[in-house]
Design brief:
CATH architecture: 2-Layer Sandwich
Strand content: 15-25%
Number of helices: 6
Oligomer: single chain
Radius of gyration: 16 Å
Distance between the termini: 32 Å
Strand order of the largest sheet: 5-4-1-2-3-6
Length: about 190
Amino acid sequence: MKERQNFSANSSPNMVLRLARPSRFVADDRGYVLEDASMSGSPDQWARRAIAAYDTFEADAIVAEVNQGGDMVESTIRSVRPSVRVIKVRAARGKHIRAEPISALYSQGKISHVGAFPQLEGQLCQMTAAGYVGEGSPDRLDALVWGFTELFPKLTKQRRERTRPLPQRPAAFSFGPAAAGGLRSSSARC
């Protein structure tokens, strides 16, 4: 099975998540969280880690949020490997609004976690329709949202192009374990 894989790095350039969606030639229309390779380190260290993961898993692109650091993220990646494909994304809406389409994929059982990712899952459990209720920034959640937004463009494009007001949002998102499609660690509970 050939996978479309993106690595997502958010504006805190130490978040590296490996996300995959099988190719259009496979009947499986699901997304998978395969690795959380997040780290704290120098720009050179995280760029090298992202590119190593990109190479190891034959990814299609690295998705990088450029709001906070401008083009620094892309420049740092390209200083290590000029030819790597970088998809730059820029936030124009709040994290909880950007997360809604991805939450819908979880609710539909279209995203699974292959393994346990306690820090990521903790952040997913603390995102509500009103915003993030946890401590600090939901950096891993944000990287996941950007990556899956690129892997599921039809769903997220429909959300962006909507011109009429959104219907009333539910009280909480469905990032919980019941939506994980059976592959999520049983230790993660929202």
